[in-house]
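Human: I would love a firmer grasp of how sequence relates to backbone shape in proteins. Take your time, and here it is.
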Amino acid sequence: MEGDNSYQEAAAQAKLRRFPLKLVKGVPLMEPIADGWDIVENFQAFPDDLIISTYPKAGTTWVQEIVDLIYNDGDAVKCQRAPTFVRIPFLEIISPPPLPSGVEMLGKMPRPRIIKTHLPFHLVPRSIWENKCKVIYVARNAKDNTVSYYHFDRMNKTQPDPGTWDQYITKFIKGEVAWGPWSDHVKGYWAEKNNHQILYLFYEDLKENPRQQTVKILDFLERVLPKDIIDKIVELTSFSSMKNNPMTNYTFFPKNLFDHSVSPFMRKGEVGDWQNHFSEQQRQLFDRAYARWMDGVDIPFRDLL
């Protein structure tokens, strides 16, 4: 679907609501995705497809924009051709008609395609691995991820009501949120990163040295760009630039989908914002859960303290 008023009109017609979660192979997904799972599971990838995978609110849009600019040699005008979700469809998203599904949108796209997903490793369609597709995975500090996801669920009118912040922390720890437990997600891709073409990145590294991480992505994609174009990409994908870019900030979505008066889609993009939300009791509860999740795991996340 084109990135114009047609999407807003379709969204206005669709019967959208806060959909309940249903289990798909043990993972809670929004009801429309679960009910249409066969379409997602049988998705046919091409070898030149690039997959961008993250747990929700871990830097997905950021890396999508970096990659699209790389594919278009840093041409900002080309990357203004449509909103992010049109340029890089969300593989597993299924919404009520007349909104198109991610698979439907991908079926109409020219190759090479860039594809977004939040699916944990074991739910990724088999054709992606069979075709040896490249995958860029981004992981984010668990506490910051929890805070960002909470505010997103407040403004996203299709995901379950997050409840209070205290209630949400409990749900997050139990993995009772869309796309399941954070720990299973980050560990699943980490365990398989040497068995497939997976570039495993960290949100905190992207914040600390965006140019270095952009070059890492460029190398992974086996592409070469002049230094000035790389610098331009870094500038165009800064948080402030993307927050003010209507093609990346999701203000294009109508209010019955994303209510930006509750919380903006691009809220802060900071590292360590969790300290402004967690009480000491909540921190201790979360730290105990985190210690269980990561026992014996060598993923080099930054210190949570």
Q: What stands out?
A: The mean pLDDT is 92. The radius of gyration is 18 Å. Residues 61 and 248 are 7 Å apart (CA to CA).
